[in-house]
Amino acid sequence: MHIQDIKCFTSDLLIQQLALAFRELLPGVEAQLLMAPPSRDILLRQNRHQGPARKAAVLIPLFYQEGRLSTLLITRNVYEGVHSGQVAFPGGKAEPFDTSLIDTALREAAEEVGLEPANVLVLGSLTDVYIPPSHFMVTPVVGFLNSVPTVTPDGHEVMLVSSVALETLFDPDNRKELEINTPAGRLSTPAYCVADLVIWGATAMMISELECIWQSVRLNRP
């Protein structure tokens, strides 16, 4: 989508500036690694997977709630799998019928939490994140909604849906080092901790890059 289309969708200057930032040079892996778990290096060195990583995408929805720019996170149900019970953005693997990874992110968000794709203005994407335990290469797609979304969680996949203000999520006091059970064992791991949410792993890496962009835009606002 062109920036002119974004201006037609919203007059909010911060959102317009964020959209422009996603079209420039991203902070990239360097920003993501600030919140990378130590288990990542261990699993990368073990390299148990063969062949190219599977494609996936998540949606990072942005919206204003009580005057504060916020995002939406899900807590996955407990199941037999490496991402059981984790906090994440809505998303999942690409299907052959998806025309792009943006379509994957929008479709998965619709399936998991009921977000209507037509209500989401895609601002851009962050740097892809490789997830060693599941061998997925994930594209984080950032979208904006003009109102607080009404969510309908898929009870099969989603235990809880939470909205968090970005300024709360990015508060330095909410970045912790915790002992977490990872696929490589129980390790001291960086995490964003807001209320009862403990956000670590690939999701925390995505948030870290988003935080760098958000802070840069705020510092450079006229």
Quick tags:
single chain, 222 residues, alpha+beta, Nucleoside Triphosphate Pyrophosphohydrolase, eight-stranded mixed β-sheet, 30% helix, globular
Task: Briefly say what this structure is.
With 222 residues, the protein is α+β, with helices and mostly antiparallel strands. Helix content is 30%, strand content 32%.
Give a description of the structure:
- With 222 residues, this protein is an alpha+beta fold.
- The protein has a domain at 3-33 and 53-161 and 208-219: Nucleoside Triphosphate Pyrophosphohydrolase.
- The chain has seven helices and eleven strands.
- It has helices at 3-9, 13-22, 29-32, 38-46, 101-113, 166-169, 201-219, and strands spanning 54-65, 68-76, 87-88, 91-93, 121-125, 129-131, 136-144, 158-165, 175-182, 185-194, 197-199.
- The strands form two sheets. Strands 1, 2, 3, 4, 5, 6, 7 and 8 form an eight-stranded mixed beta sheet that branches. A three-stranded antiparallel beta sheet has the order 9-10-11.
- Strand 9 and strand 10 form a beta hairpin.
- Helix 2 (13-22) crosses helix 7.
- The chain is globular and about 50 Å long.
- The model has no long low-confidence stretch (mean pLDDT 91).
| Helical run tally | 7
CATH superfamily of the domain at 3-33 and 53-161 and 208-219: Nucleoside Triphosphate Pyrophosphohydrolase
Q: Give the termini separation.
A: 24 Å
Which CATH class of the domain at 3-33 and 53-161 and 208-219? Answer: Alpha Beta
CATH architecture descriptor of the domain at 3-33 and 53-161 and 208-219: Alpha-Beta Complex
What is the average of the pLDDT values? 91
Instruction: Tell how many strands the DSSP assignment holds.
Output: 11
